[in-house]
Task: structure prediction
Amino acid sequence: MAPGPPGRRAAGTALRALIGVVVVLALGEAVVRRWIESPSTALGDPRYGFVQPPHTRIVHSSEGWSETRTNALGLFDDELQSHPGHRALLLGDSYAEALQVPRAASFQRVAERDAPGWEVVNAGMSGRSPVQYADWLDEWDKRLHPEIVLVQINDGDLDDLTLALRHPGASGMIEALGSGDEHGVRRLAHDVLRGSALATLVWRRVSLLSGYERERLAQRFTHVAATSAAIERHPPLDPRLAPMLDALYRRMAAHGHRVVFVYVPRIDYFAEPCAPVYAERRAFYHAFAERNHVELIDPTEAFCAEFRRTGQPVHGFANSVMGSGHINRRGHRLVGEAIAAALRESAP
Amino acid sequence: MIFSSIEFFVFLAVVLGLLAALPGENARRNLLVGASYVFYGWWDWRFCLLLLGYTVLDYNVGVHLEDETRPGRRRAWLIASLVGNLGTLAVFKYTNFFLSTLAPLLDTLGVHVPKLHIVLPVGISFMTFQTMSYSIDVYQRRLRATRNFRDFAMFAAFFPQLVAGPIVRGSVFLPQLERVHPPRLENLRLGLEQFVRGFAKKVLFADTLAVYVDPVFAHPGAYASPVCWFAVIAYAGQIYYDFSGYSEMAIGVGRMLGFQLPENFRHPYLSLNVTEFWRRWHITLSTWLRDYLYISLGGNRRGRGRTYVNLMITMLLGGLWHGASWNFVVWGGLHGVALAGHKWVAERRRPGSEGRFGAWGKLASWVTTFTFVLVTWVFFRAPSFATAWAYLGKLAFLDAGGMDWYYVQGLVVIGLGAALHVWVKARGERDLRLDLTRAAAWPALAVLLLLVLLYAPFGTNPFIYFQF
Result:
């Protein structure tokens, strides 16, 4: 067959190229949705920032891997037991949310297994800090009637509290997407994009990258140290943090439940000997616990002992940097065992 | 300003736009010289003074070498160039190295030498070799000196290859300055294709592998032996994809501007012996060392023993060129020993006996060569001699325990890199091309773009060879 005129050939090539690109995008959407990232399902809640709707499938792959579903309350937990023996409520951030490990391996589940008769309701949600936990407790206490409240804290929470101190009203929460101000095409585009797992992932990456680039360029032209670099330098703790955390604790304790704080430290596995990365912050939490006569679970020693015994860190995953980031199965097991011990103490 | 950063994309677009818009050839030449200085000054404007210094020195030396007929005077001009170039390099790059090496001796004499705070200008080693080779070529009458200072300034400062090569000879670059065209569509397309290949090598392969390499080389004692093996393989991949990616981006940008820069890598990890490795790895440096150092020392013309000595000197200095550290000297020395060893064996081999062990013999040669290259990379990458020894101990399974970290993305990239090498070998070493005139290239480009967006580690990691 004789080749057609150049214009037609070019049009044919362009059409085949376009079809190819569409096929790539469709396959990309399928792969991402199945194994890498879920579409953006989070809803903007005026009180709590982003929350997940009930019965939503979530795939997590940035550290570890899990495929999970929220329960009827929109929590990363199974459905609530109708007649639990004893019930504990776990408030926390991404460490409690535990998307990095299969749900069965999370410290919440380990605690339930090791403390028979207890149901631990996991209300952990990433990006949150003690600033929100007191509000949450007001809400969840009425619905769940827990006997014990477990408040998971970590070193980064003190940065969130500092942010809330410096910007009162912001409370360190992420501003909810999809505000009511959007209408028409913009709203439609937003909804369509949020329905795509690929678009969600690309958008998230582009946002992170542009934020990083903005910071880098600002540093290049203004010689102002980058925020991330400033945080890495471990600035001294704001003296107003102690009374702030005390006040938040008093609000939680006012419900009349036993409140147990669960500290999840970062560990420097390369130090000799193994030690917490933020010794000052750990000491801050211990001083807080002593001042308020509050129970504090601190697995630092258990983490280091595990590392000495096995040579394996309790932070990090095969698809992220080993020894940093969130706790892995080993870490969850150790934290869960410590929580279970505390729960068993409470059993009548 | 590095090639994989946003500011470089903006810079390149502006340069190409102006190059297309400017009507006269003079204006286009001025633009390219000015743009090259802006590119280099982006790191630190003071570096431009150094670049200008090199340019003035070797331009004038070239003119005098061309005009002068008396051998003594000509030699004196050449020495002036060598002293100026190598002296500057020594001051900026090696002062602290020499002082710290002499420190124990000086301490015994009661002299305490502090560490000096000398900023190492980016790419100074490349710049030095490029301008110095021009003077040597003119001295040896292999090249006519240019009488156009602006042309020479452009040769010395041409931004695509200024900071990390490919090292371009005057005989290759200066003739291309006869005509400086506005950008041509064909050049833009071919340049873009090569730039995209290099960009993918850098951000998808090299930067991903760096995530694995950096922690393991920082604390090799903490990781299990198999992890250390994977990490050194990852480093072999990282440095190859980083540097060959940079070279391809440089060649691509050069092509967009209408210039042809020389090839710098030819699948070095397919080499069956270390001599072949150096014919495929950093080709513009290895040929530079051969032509300007090894042959100047006498090459293989002064007997067998002297040939080996010349090889060793060339590789030791080649190692030192990479960095002011004994690690680099050891790395160069090991390669020198291997090159000499291979030469010794090759000279004793009966003619025609090369392929007598067939495919298995080739496989054994490849495994031996690749393992040797891996082990020597330990010295190249380790931050100190002590760390290098600790790392080698891990590779030897002397203390095999430690963290089990089999970084998924890193292992996938290693596997992909290995598969691509096998495929390229099966294709007769023809590279994969991204031909944008073909419909299939666009979905491939979409896949590449998605992978970069989804998986490239954030942060514009500097190219490894910038430090040299």
Notes: The longest helix of chain A spans residues 6-36. Residues 29 and 261 of chain A are 41 Å apart (CA to CA).
